[in-house]
Amino acid sequence: MSLDTSRKSAPAGHVERKGEDTKSDKVVAGVSHVMLSLWALMVLIPLAWTLLSSFKTTKEILISPFSLPADWKFDNYVSAWNTAGIGLYFFNTVIVVGFALVIVMVLGAMCAYVLARYVFPGSRAIYYLMLAGLTFPIFLAIVPLFFILKNIGLLNTLPGLIIVYVSFALPFTVFFLFSFFKALPKEIAEAAQIDGAGEWRTFFQVMLPMAKPGMASVAIFNFLGLWNQYLIPVAINTNPENYVLSQGIAAFAGQQGYAVDFGSLFAAAIIVVVPVLIMYILFQRQLQGSVSAGTMK
């Protein structure tokens, strides 16, 4: 009798798991840990070496590149920020990437929501055109972009660079968020409309917060792509006063010829990397949540 009761108390569809992992599971887990450890070392060792080199003189870097600095030179960061103009380039990059990221996230979320939740003539065509934008090489658009921005008076300006960044990041944003909005239950939106919420309020106060993991993930990917962008600024932003960080570091390394101040150059590289690390640390929980949510669908 007790045996039958215990069986009945088990939830329907319950599958008993094995108490111990099989040998193949242990092998797969071991290989995965080894590969991940090697990947972590490949990332962390160059980063740590760059960080240490940013506190050295050029002579120390050339003579003993893997030793600790004899005298920690924080002046390298001051020199990179002021003398090399990294401060100005950093400010320009924050403006361009910040405005472009906000605009592309708002427009991309709205576009993805409409394409995912509503059916209207041409909706599929618009979606496929967005997908086609992902396959369009950037270098093929450089010449047309140059003349378009020149004709509208936005060539070599930060607003022109922002518009181009938004246009190239928009297809990926729509493609990424489309599946998130498609998977959200329609009943929630219908309930909000029954309670008197309009389309705008339903989107911004109900549906958009539910897609927060996807928004965080695509924001990180867009931030990385826009922050490290080099080809587009080089082609349409040739005014030194409007340089972004990727252009500034390239110019800083090239203008010194054979007398490169490697300490300041490594300090400038660290300045470029730090915002990316901060961005990931702030949004890593949402990024992990989006990955786990995607595996549950």
Would you tell me which CATH topology applies? MetI-like fold
Number of domains: 1
| Main beta sheet strand tally, sense and closure | none
- Overall mean pLDDT: 84
Number of helices: 14
The CATH architecture name reads Orthogonal Bundle
Give an overview in words.
The protein contains 14 helices and no strands. It is 75% helix and 0% strand. It has a single domain (75-296), classed as MetI-like (MetI-like fold), CATH 1.10.3720.10.
In a few lines, what is going on in this structure?
This protein is mostly helical. It is 75% helix and 0% strand.
List the defining traits of the structure above.
mainly alpha, globular, 14 helices, 297 residues
Describe the secondary structure blueprint for this structure.
Layout: H1 2-9, H2 23-53, H3 58-63, H4 75-83, H5 86-117, H6 123-134, H7 142-151, H8 158-183, H9 186-194, H10 199-210, H11 212-227, H12 231-236, H13 245-255, H14 262-296
